[in-house]
Amino acid sequence: MAQNFFTEIKIPQKKFFEGLVFPKILSPNPRNSVEFHSLTDAIKDQKPWLDSVLHQHGAILFRGFSVSTAADFNNVVEAFGYEELPYVGGAAPRTNVVGRVFTANESPPDQKIPFHHEMAQVPEYPSKLFFFCEVEPVNGGETPIVLSHVVYERMKEKYPDFVQNLEEHGLIYTRVLGEEDDPSSPIGRGWKSTFLTNEKSVAEERAAKLNMKLEWTEDGVKTIMGPIPAIKFDKTRQRKIWFNSMVAAYTGWKDARNDPVKAVTFGDGKPLPSHIIYDCLRILEDESVAIPWQKGDVLLIDNLAVLHSRRPFASPRRVLASLCK
């Protein structure tokens, strides 16, 4: 039984939606009567139960387990048995650490990363995300999370015409990439690492598979994605979700090459209303849960159910990630 190994803990940041706690926080049961040697053993033994918990609550935080290194984290990810998703088309600078584990967005610590579903701006996105706190931040650096269907319902209630436009037309995302990664930018991934190639022809092939248009410039490329849906229907939960990177693009895709106001438009090319975007950002913040990281924390997110972001922080902080199909 799962309760023989896991016990649910309560923390002040948790919230309840429709009677369900968000997120679900699991720790080792001090009265464990079953001989599990590690979290990975428990995951393998309780995989169906953990899958059902994730589906019901949208996110699980594993806290207090013996997960201390990137290799330990890689073992946890592999224990779940989800297929790996290559990071093709994403915007964030990342570095492979070990196995299926990468650094999370490497943008400077003073920069906030706005709410988004991982890779919502491309057709092939992960269904699951793992985060792991290897080095606990001095202060700040939380990864706030928010339930997507809650955001959809609040936006639909307040801005029905805007949401209808999104449902009818979708969104177009435009981003200008340099050749190499720009670590000073939260969207600074160069085209070579974005498409995992040094060849323009291969990049064009991989972009075409994503239905992404490329316009080459002297020192980089403009990528145009869309129209792509901004609202999806989550069939497994029978509800609509706010599945897009609209707020992230409009408020955060800013660097030497990119103007965030031009980064995202309605699918028919019309500009988005600024006041609604910023009100959506407020709603995201209002409904979110931000739990301070502790060393060894592993956060599992259902990417169809939950958006995430990153708050600024004081170094050192090292959070690793893994993406799954």
Write up what this structure looks like:
With 325 residues, the chain is an alpha+beta fold. It folds into 2 domains: 2-146 and 290-324, Clavaminate synthase-like (Double-stranded beta-helix); 148-285, Double-stranded beta-helix, CATH 3.60.130. The protein is 28% helix and 28% strand. It has 9 helices and 21 strands. The chain has helices spanning 39-57, 70-80, 148-158, 160-169, 191-194, 200-209, 246-252, 260-263, 274-287; strands spanning 6-8, 15-17, 20-22, 24-28, 59-62, 96-98, 101-103, 113-116, 128-135, 139-140, 145-147, 171-178, 212-216, 220-228, 232-234, 239-241, 264-266, 298-302, 306-310, 313-314, 318-324. Strands 1-4-5-18-9-21-7-6 form an 8-stranded mixed beta sheet, with helices on one face. It has a 4-stranded antiparallel beta sheet with strand order 13-14-12-17. A 3-stranded antiparallel beta sheet has the order 8-19-11. β15 (232-234) and β16 (239-241) form a beta hairpin. α7 packs across α9. The chain is globular, with a radius of gyration of 20 Å. It starts with 5 loop residues before the first strand and ends with a strand. The model has no long low-confidence stretch (mean pLDDT 93). GO terms for molecular function: oxidoreductase activity. Keywords: Oxidoreductase. Residues 33-320 form the TauD/TfdA-like domain.
